[in-house]
Write a structure and sequence with these properties.
By secondary structure, this protein is of the alpha/beta class. 55% of the residues lie in helices and 13% in strands. The protein contains eleven helices and six strands. Strand 4, helix 4 (87-94) and strand 5 form a beta-alpha-beta unit. This is Response regulator transcription factor. It comes from Streptomyces similanensis. Pfam families: GerE, Response_reg.
């Protein structure tokens, strides 16, 4: 059973998230919070597998709450809920330890897919979030999107062929176990590749590596739902 905490300051949004997650018999919502401080305390108490946090909440926002949660409960994966106007917040959250990013207006199935992926230790960027992040980086960077893609491809060129293959699967939201099964290797080998990928790209977490994969255009097709 995947135990989940929901944090959003809007009761109707929390109810909607809970209703979507309830359609998966292997997911259980164990607690709800209306702000970041409450989310941190409930994570401390319940130790859920996944915390689903709205980015904008009163008091302690979702980004700061995610950073605290990663500090007190590193086994709890954080999924951030964003809107189309929060690109800067998404970029900040990438450095705060969040592993999943979903658009509130996205398909309900994406929420379940994201929660499952993060619970398994993977990074998950909804396709819309990935597109927004890449477009925002292109608009605020030194060149156009083509320049960003060229730079990303240059970054991944330093990786081995196998590491690039693992990065492509990582970018599509697969966990280490899923990647191991795709490549027919043991999970420990995949973990070693992921560590080498993070070091080679100079990023701190899987979500940031996934952004590079999307920028470079090497994301593998997502697996079909079970």
């Amino acid at each position: 059973m995947i135990r989940v905490l929901i944090a959003d300051d809007e009761p109707m949004v929390r109810a909607g998230i809970r209703a979507v997650l309830a359609t998966d018999p292997e997911i259980e919502v164990v607690a709800e919070a209306a702000d970041g401080h409450g989310a941190v305390e409930l994570v401390r108490r319940h130790r859920p597998a996944v915390a689903v946090l709205d980015i904008r909440m009163p008091g302690l926002n979702g980004i700061d709450a995610a950073a605290e949660i990663c500090g007190i409960a590193p086994a709890t994966g954080v999924v951030m809920l964003t809107t189309f106007g929060e690109d800067d917040y998404i970029l900040k959250a990438l450095g705060g330890g969040a592993a999943g990013f979903l658009i509130k207006s996205g398909e309900p199935e994406e929420l379940i897919t994201g929660v499952r992926a993060v619970a398994e230790g993977a990074a998950y960027l909804s396709p819309k979030v990935a597109a927004r992040v890449i477009a925002h980086l292109a608009a605020t960077g030194a060149g156009a999107l083509a320049g960003r893609r060229s730079a990303a491809r240059e970054r991944i060129s330093a990786l081995t062929a196998r590491e690039r293959e693992v990065l492509a699967f990582l970018g599509s939201g697969l966990s280490n176990g899923q990647i191991a099964r795709r490549l027919r290797v043991v999970e420990g080998t995949v973990k070693a590749h992921v560590s080498a990928i993070l070091a080679g790209l100079g990023v701190d977490n899987r979500a940031a590596a996934a952004v590079v994969a999307h920028e470079a255009g090497i994301v593998a097709p997502r697996p079909s739902p079970p």
